[in-house]
Amino acid sequence: DTAVSQTPKYLVTQMGNDKSIKCEQNLGHDTMYWYKQDSKKFLKIMFSYNNKELIINETVPNRFSPKSPDKAHLNLHINSLELGDSAVYFCASSQGMQAFEAFFGQGTRLTVV
Amino acid sequence: AQSVTQLDSQVPVFEEAPVELRCNYSSSVSVYLFWYVQYPNQGLQLLLKYLSGSTLVKGINGFEAEFNKSQTSFHLRKPSVHISDTAEYFCAVSGAGGTSYGKLTFGQGTILTVHP
Fold this sequence. Notes:
The structure holds 2 protein chains of 2 kinds. By secondary structure, chain A is mostly beta strands. Helices cover 0% and strands 56% of the residues of chain A. Chain A is built from no helices and 11 strands. Chain A starts with a strand and ends with a strand. Chain B is an all-beta fold. Chain B has no helices and 12 strands. In chain B, the strands form 3 sheets. In chain B, strands 2, 5, 6, 10, 11 and 12 form a 6-stranded mixed beta sheet that branches. The chains are: A mainly beta, B mainly beta. The interface between A and B is medium-sized, with 25 and 22 residues.
C-alpha cells in the first residue's frame, strides 16, 4: 500500500503547455511538500502545506501553483512550461511542520521539449 | 541560510567492505540532520536522523552516523556493505528554529555502488 503516490511517473510535454502533477498520501499526515530535483541532483523545497494552508513558498515562478483540496492531497499545476522546468518533482508528507521524518513519493520526471 | 555538501559524488566499494559517506553542513542555527536513501526508481526513504542527545545514531539496514558539531559533519558509515546497499544517499539538514525550521536542505547525493 503506497504511502505517498504521485501521478504521472513520467511526463513529456511541449513548451508552453499547462500540466498538473497529482500527489496523495494515506499516512494521515497534516503537512505536504513539493521538492524539485534539478539536473545536478540538488533537491530543493518549493512549497509546503500544513492542514491545507500554504506555509512555505520558496522563490518559485508564479507559473507554479500548488493546490491542496484536502490534507491528503497536494497537486502541482504548472502553466506555460519552459525548458528549464525539466526536472524530477517529488511530493512528500510529514506529521507536523518539523519535517523530522518526511515520506517521499517516487517522483515525477518532467521533460519539456 | 543553511547548506549541505556531500564530498563524494560516487563511492565504489566491494561487498563486505566498510564504507563512509561524507557530509558537511553549514547553518546559522541549531540543526537536525538526516540521511535519506533513494533506490532506483523509488522515492527517498529515511535511513536515520539526529535530533538531539547521543551524537552516534543508528538507522535501518545497519547504517550509523555521527554528529560532530565542531567539524559540522554528519558522516554515514556501515561496517560491511551488501550488494543491496547500492543506491544514492542524500544528506539533509533542517533548522531547529528560525526561518529554516521545517525545511529540509539536501546535499547533491552520493552514489554508492557495491561490487561483488
